[in-house]
Design a protein that fits this description.
The complex is a heterodimer of chains A (270) and B (387). Chain A contains ten helices and nine strands. With 270 residues, chain A is of the alpha/beta class. Classes of the chains: A alpha/beta (270), B mainly alpha (387). Chains A and B meet through helix 3, strand 6 and helix 7 of A and strand 1 and helix 6 of B.
């Protein structure tokens, strides 16, 4: 993470060194690690196109909001709505936070292709992850222990999963294994017959099987129409309605290139 | 002749130093010594600073939450609200993985070192040792990738048969030896040599059958075993033992080499066989070095992060039963690596400082074991030098 940010900074210095002064100031983005990949790819794309320096740091949604309120960044990347207290604090500082949807983030629940279970309800998934169900038999499968795979505690996907499935307050079973990335979870599920995991929808491929949740298969359409339950919006927040280069940057998510970047990263464009 | 004179004169000139030149030399010497001293003390200061800064960030955790939860609870939910910071299962996981890798690496490493230093011919050793040391040059992320992508699925699909083969290979020679030795020992009381031999053969047959039965029963038990998850303590122990091997082999072999010819030849001169010389003379003489090698190797596996983060499964619970190496565990190092990202100073203070508490714990453990090994090495040296 840090390395990538650093590389971006170096790239910014090399590419836009001369242009920074010409364009006034660059764009500073701070906030969610979930929105981070989008922000960084947009930044790289935008820098290449216009030469405007864009720096991205990932310190979590809460810190993004704080930075925006303190005027330390131009755009706060957030994987949740701004809380009323944050908006109140912003108003007090003379900052008017404006919300822009960057993309949609859907989580696919994946199992091994050899797993005969055809579908799970949200309650069943929550039961598996909180340790209520430990055998596939309890959710209509064969007699085999469930190998539960989760993400590390600082993962945005983990946070979304907890918010959407188990509820923020409930604790995930101690038996759950932890993997450090979407790719690692996919790898473990694809090689472990009795496992269950969750990854960003864009990471799903034929090595694993996304399981229908409440009877709905996760697809771009079912997410856009809102029938697939496990999704949320990712936001960019700005101070006031953006103008100039900020407006141009934020409108990237509606351009064909921006949409391509979003879907390549495993998110869904609006 | 004239050249010699020339040399003589130039040499003598080098010794005649003018006052100013001597001063310059003195300054240069002082400067050089200062630089060297600075560099040497810098290294020591870095160690102290690491200790200091880790401790400074670790202490607030204990001030906030006390010692009890950290050392006695197994609930590790740092992101929860409120967070729970029970590290017992994680400490246990670290111990388990370190012990497992030591159990595998120490016998293998010492055997390999003895083999390299005293058994293999010099020409083979010349090539074998660098190859073993190459293991140390492989980046740990490559080991971790291997463990996650190759070893873990392998353990899942054919872990049972693999364990069976390992059991056969390890247990068969051992049981064979104990059958022969045991039946001989049991029949030593019988006076008549003919009868003794007959009884010994009968006992051998009986014990042999028993041993085969044990081999078969345990083997088929292992064969039928299904390893549910390949990212477990066993997987990591195996990989970590490979990572500790080069350290152990290299250091132990050096210390075996440093046992002089005199001791070996003295032992031979007293009529000892090669095996006796090795077991009773060379290995005891090199024992301090071997111990240092073992502790260095264990430190290697204790401190390894990438492999355990990728392949230990990272589930913070104490396996059931407690010796079950086929369950996923979580270690201190992996927890620090995995939970660092979100736990910055701003968000949760306990959540941030608990990681430093873990780091401090690791530092203290390695500091103590380094101290102990240093002590043992010094004492051993004293004993060997006859003091």
């Amino acid at each position: 993470m840090m390395k990538r940010v650093l590389m971006l900074l170096i790239a910014a210095l090399l590419l836009g060194g001369a242009d920074v002064s010409a364009a006034g100031t660059g764009i500073v983005i701070d906030g969610s690690t979930t929105v981070g990949p989008i922000a960084k790819s947009f930044a790289a794309y935008y820098m290449k196109k216009t030469g405007v320096a864009v720096t991205v740091s990932e310190s979590g949604s809460g810190n993004g909001a704080k930075s925006l309120i303190n005027g330390a960044c131009d755009i706060a990347a957030m994987s949740r709505d701004m809380k009323p207290q944050e908006i109140a604090a912003a108003r007090k500082m003379g900052v008017n936070p404006v919300q822009h949807v960057a993309a949609l983030d859907a989580i696919a629940i994946i199992v091994n292709p050899a797993n005969p279970v055809r579908g799970l309800t949200r309650a069943q998934i929550a039961g598996i992850y909180t340790g209520r169900y430990t055998n596939w038999q309890q959710v209509g499968g064969p007699n085999a222990r469930i190998v539960v795979i989760q993400r590390e505690s600082n993962s945005g996907t983990q946070e979304s999963f907890k918010t959407l499935v188990t509820g923020k307050a409930s604790q995930i079973t101690r038996l759950a294994e932890t993997q450090a990335s979407n790719g690692a979870v996919k790898n473990r599920v694809s090689t472990t017959r009795t496992s269950i995991g969750f990854i960003g929808m864009g990471f799903v491929d034929s090595s694993v099987r996304p399981i229908p949740v409440d009877g709905v298969v996760p697809t771009v359409e079912s997410v856009r129409s809102g029938t697939y339950p496990l999704w949320r919006k990712l936001y960019f927040y700005t101070n006031g309605v953006p103008v100039g280069q900020l407006k141009e940057f934020l409108s990237l998510s509606a351009t064909p290139d921006g949409m391509r970047i979003i879907s390549e990263l495993g998110y869904i464009s609006r | 002749m004239s050249g010699e004179v020339q040399k003589e004169s130039s040499r003598s000139q080098a010794f005649v130093v003018s006052e100013s030149r001597r001063k310059m030399q003195k300054v240069a010497r002082t400067a050089g010594e200062t630089v060297l001293l600075l560099i040497a003390s810098f290294v020591a200061i870095v160690v102290l600073f690491i200790f200091y800064f880790v401790a400074v960030d670790a202490v607030p955790y204990f001030q906030l939450r006390g010692f009890t939860e950290f050392f006695t609870s197994t609930s590790w939910y740092p992101a929860g609200e409120p967070g729970e910071f029970g590290a017992l299962a994680i400490i246990y996981g670290t111990g388990m993985v370190t012990l497992g890798s030591a159990l595998l690496a120490v016998p293998m490493g010492i055997a390999a070192a003895v083999c390299l230093s005293d058994i293999l011919p010099f020409s083979v050793r010349q090539y074998a040792k660098p190859v073993i040391e190459m293991l140390a040059a492989i980046p740990s992320v490559a080991f971790g990738f291997f463990a996650l992508v190759i070893l873990a699925p392998l353990l899942q699909t054919s872990g049972g048969p693999m364990l069976m083969w390992v059991w056969w290979i390890l247990a068969a020679p051992f049981l064979l030896l104990s059958v022969i030795v045991g039946s001989d020992l049991l029949t030593t009381k019988i006076e008549d040599p003919l009868r003794r031999k007959r009884y010994a053969t009968m006992l051998q047959a009986l014990f042999g059958l028993l041993a085969l039965l044990v081999l078969y029963v345990v083997g088929s038990r292992l064969n039928a075993m299904e390893i549910l998850t390949g990212t477990n303590a066993l997987n990591v122990s195996i990989i970590l033992s490979f990572m500790a091997l080069p350290t152990i082999v290299s250091v132990a072999e050096d210390s075996l080499q440093s046992v002089g010819r005199e001791l070996r030849e003295g032992s031979y001169a007293l009529g000892a066989t090669r095996a006796e010389t090795l077991v009773k003379t060379v290995i005891p003489a090199a024992s301090s070095g071997i111990l240092a090698a073992v502790i260095l190797g264990i430190m290697r596996s204790l401190g390894e992060t990438m492999v355990v983060w990728m392949a230990s499964g990272n589930s913070s619970h104490i396996p059931e039963p407690w010796y079950n190496y086929l369950e996923a565990v979580r270690t201190l190092t992996a927890t620090i690596a995995g939970d660092m990202g979100e736990a910055d100073q701003v968000t949760g203070s306990a959540r941030y400082h608990v990681l430093f508490a873990m780091g401090l714990l690791l530092l203290v453990i390695s500091f103590i074991s380094n101290l102990v090994s240093e002590r043992i090495v010094v004492r051993q040296r004293k004993i060997l030098s006859g003091q």
